[in-house]
Amino acid sequence: MSESLGVFLISVGGFMQGTYFLGLKWTKPWKWENIWLAYAVFSLFIMPVALAVAAVPHLGHLLSTAPGKNLELVFLYGAGWGIGSVLSGLGVDRMGLAMGVAVLIGITGALGSLIPLVVDTPDLVFKPKGLMIVLSVIVLLAGVTLVGIAGKKRDASRTASNESGQKGSFMTGLLICIFSGIFSCMLNLAFSFSKPIANAAVLGGATAGGAQDFVWMVALVGGFIANAIYTFFLLTRNRTWKLFGMPKSGRAWLVGIWMAVLWYGGVLLYGRGAGLMGELGTVAGWPIFMATMIIFSTIWGFVTGEWKESSSLAKRLMLAGLIVLIVASGISGVANKM
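The structure corresponding to this sequence follows.
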């Protein structure tokens, strides 16, 4: 029962993560860097710190007494994820949305699952349970590839003026997306390899959930740094700091907070769900999280008209990709119960 609940929570978390990006469609009078900074401040700093303060007794003392090396490792993994978050925007801008997202999500999903499997439980890699998890990752990659091809077909039907929006060479974009995928998987690595500091939080009086909140705080504050540096750079270069004070900015602030609630809520549910799935929760749960994120973000793309002018072939490929992603999630769920 707890494992099924874990899969459900992870799926809801994926829905939330696949939905938060909709806020980017309602940013006026702000630019991208304005809404992104507002989102990052709340989702990566204010909310994680506030929840950790509320959930962890003597938080300051814990920060000074928790295993230092592991604390630094989780923080650095979080910072690495933040770098991946920044690179994703740069890579997709050059490579195109469909293929760029397919590459970086594919790499993030694969490495985020396989690295904890190999490092924490190498004895399981060639056993039925481990092989099923590897199979789920392979199927995930196949689904992401189909989604990417469908997106490329969709983009091909757009006008030449829209296609010219990509900046720089495709190969440069490909390399950036590859590195983005590598760095982005570090969010799951931060959570997977956080047991020493999570145990220290429990010994200090926190619940298991509170210990997770402590881990997310450490990792996400690390991720906030890279996002803050990049948005500060854009705000200064584009002279868009002044937009924060524009009339009707109140709605934009609310959109940024709404995005933050959805994104951070998705992370929390992933952590709770992975904890309920047992020893291999972060290994089997991560592909489910990635798959449901793509599934729901694609559904929202259809709802908001992004596929309105697409060919029937592109739509069929996308449907096939979504079905494969659902199969990948199912395989991960079965593997965890073996």
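The CA atoms of residues 34 and 302 lie 26 Å apart.
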